[in-house]
């Protein structure tokens, strides 16, 4: 099953491609110090961002239906979203996926990350019959944590990773959120009642 185009109230999520507009999105995002604040000490070069794009495009071929999408608001690209394959001990785990999102700063704090993430979670649970969706971020990244919570995900652990070149805030650790299909279906039932 190829990745579908997914439409929400305000967004269209189109599968990531090798088009120049999609590559340029990665260059713009990865070159922004504010976007990369919780990811890297220095913004990425265009060559590094292009390699980042290629890596994520390759990941989109590992499990049918999973991968990366580019979010559009009308005809404007606002960022990327992912429902990415999970790798456990070197093997792809097809029953769970990692949720992710990275938006251009002009589109922050308007609910787009939550809207896109929820749409991908709905697709993952309803169409792909995933058992679980998970996500990780830095403990100090309140915005990303808020998005995962708003999607019904629960904090399951805090952990520390030894990075070669840690970014500020690393000392506070990383956090992991998860939601299973049963919990997702319970949330969907609650929303239908109102």
What does this structure look like?
- Pfam families: Acetyltransf_3.
- This protein is α+β, with helices and mostly antiparallel strands.
- The chain has one domain (6-191): Aminopeptidase (3-Layer(aba) Sandwich), CATH 3.40.630.
- It is built from 5 helices and 8 strands; from the N terminus they run ββααβββαβαββα.
- It has an 8-stranded mixed β-sheet, sandwiched between helices.
- The model has no long low-confidence stretch (mean pLDDT 90).
The proportion of strand residues reads 25-35%
Q: How many strands, which pairing sense, and closed or not: the largest β-sheet? A: 8 strands, mixed
Q: What is the H/E order?
A: EEHHEEEHEHEEH
Can you tell me the CATH topology? Aminopeptidase
Overall pLDDT: 90
Overall structural class, as computed from helix and strand content, comes to alpha+beta
List the uncertain runs.
Answer: none
| CATH architecture term | 3-Layer(aba) Sandwich
The number of helical segments is 5
Shape by Cα distribution: globular
Which sequence of strands runs across the widest sheet?
1-2-3-4-5-6-8-7
Indicate the radius of gyration in whole angstroms.
16 Å
What is the total number of structural domains? Answer: 1
Specify the CATH class: Alpha Beta
Assembly type of the shown chains?
single chain
């Amino acid at each position: 099953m190829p990745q579908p185009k997914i439409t929400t109230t305000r967004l269209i999520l189109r599968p990531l491609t090798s088009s120049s507009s999609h590559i340029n999105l990665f260059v713009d995002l990865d070159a922004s110090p504010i976007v990369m604040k919780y990811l890297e000490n220095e913004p990425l070069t265009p060559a590094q961002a292009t390699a980042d794009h290629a890596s994520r495009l390759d990941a989109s071929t590992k499990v049918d239906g999973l991968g990366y999408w580019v979010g559009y608001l009308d005809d404007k690209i606002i960022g990327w979203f992912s429902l990415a394959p999970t790798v456990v001990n070197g093997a792809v785990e097809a029953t769970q996926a990692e949720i992710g999102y990275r938006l251009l700063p002009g589109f922050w704090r308007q609910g787009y990350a939550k809207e896109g993430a929820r749409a991908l979670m709905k697709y993952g649970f309803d169409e792909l019959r995933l058992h679980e969706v998970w996500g990780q971020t830095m403990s100090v990244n309140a915005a990303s944590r808020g998005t995962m919570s708003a999607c019904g995900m629960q904090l399951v652990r805090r952990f520390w990773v030894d990075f070669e070149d840690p970014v500020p805030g690393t000392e506070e650790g990383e956090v992991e959120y998860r939601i299973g299909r049963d919990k997702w279906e319970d949330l969907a039932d609650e929303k239908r009642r109102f």
